Amino acid sequence: MAFARVLERHASAIERRLEALLAGNEDAPAALEAAMRYAALGGGKRIRPFLLIESARLFGVAEDRALDAACALECVHCYSLAHDDLPAMDDDDLRRGRPTLHVAFGEATAILAGDALLTLAFEILSSPASHGDADIRAELVFNLAKAAGWRGMALGQAIDLDAERQDLNADGVAGMQALKTGALFRFACEAGAILGRASASDREKLRAYATALGQAFQLADDLLDAQGDAKAVGKAVAKDEGRGKATLVALLGVEGAKARLAALVAEAENAVAPFGSKAATLIEAARFIAERRT
Question: Is the CB of residue 45 less than 8 Å from the CB of residue 77?
Answer without folding.
Answer: no
